[in-house]
Amino acid sequence: MKPFIFDARNGIHIIDLSKTLSQLEAASNFLSETVRKGNKVLFVGTKKQAQQAVKETAKECGQFFVTERWLGGTLTNFATIKRSIARMKHIEKMEADGTINNYVKQEQSVIRREAARLMKFFDGIRSMEKHPGAMFVVDIKREHNAVAEARRLKIPVVAIVDTNCDPDLVDYPMAGNDDAIRSVRMILATIGQVITQAQAEYEAKYGRRRNLEEAGTEAAATPVHAAALATEASSATAAVATPP
């Protein structure tokens, strides 16, 4: 982290904010491009002071998040994770349609405890059908397992990197204090705004493309329909004109 440290006073390292700004711009541009292509971002932040901020930002911009303990294999063993998510959704369906009442009270209690545990760990990735296009991490030292899985799968990692971390472990490091909630919230606010705008642009583009495809389908079907009507009309005329 030496290139990103401005000075050290009384054993405390002071980060060069001009370097942080340029890194934040690079990370924002990368995440914006990623979301514009239709990919999703997975936010990871399990440390207590960052959990709420990470969850709020991810929800606001419609992305995935993990704010509880990172379960080993969340990315590298995704098939197993998807089965757990399917189980969670199945229990929710049982609650909704009342079929859970077919079980005795003790069994219902066990099932609801299972649902609560699954919800705690998988609620933020319930709609994740494939690997994310990028990962945003707060504190790569604490989330080393998540970073290792992303690197193994070649998923680009954007992260807030403190002076006690190795910036070479991530693709887009942003030098910053990952223990100060104000610092984390400021960076998250910027990233969230960029992703929200990119998501809106993608949805608008996708919506226009879908409308054009639907219009093209209708246009292609119209001549066929008209031809069929013309054929029916000519047949009817011929039938009337034919002498008995």
Description:
The protein has 244 residues and is of the alpha/beta class. The chain has six helices and seven strands, in the order ββαβαβααβαββα. The chain has helices spanning 17-36, 48-60, 78-97, 105-122, 144-152, 181-241; strands at residues 5-9, 12-15, 41-44, 64-66, 134-138, 157-161, 172-175. The strands form two sheets. It has a five-stranded parallel sheet with strand order 4-3-5-6-7, sandwiched between helices. A two-stranded antiparallel ribbon has the order 1-2. Strand 3 (41-44), helix 2 and strand 4 (64-66) form a beta-alpha-beta unit. Helix 1 runs parallel beside helix 6 and helix 3 (78-97) crosses helix 4 (105-122). The longest helix has 61 residues, at 181-241. The protein is globular. It starts with a strand and ends with a helix. Residues 236-244 have low confidence and may be disordered.
Number of strands: 7
Tally of separate helices: 6
* Net shape: globular
Order of strands across the main sheet: 4-3-5-6-7
The gyration radius over C-alpha positions equals 27 Å
Class by alpha and beta content: alpha/beta
Q: Work out the helicity level.
A: 55-70%
- Which residues sit in consecutive blocks of at least 5 with pLDDT less than 50? 236-244
How widely separated are the two ends? 99 Å
Keywords:
244 residues; alpha/beta; 7 strands; 12% strand; globular
Short description:
This protein is of the alpha/beta class and 244 residues long.
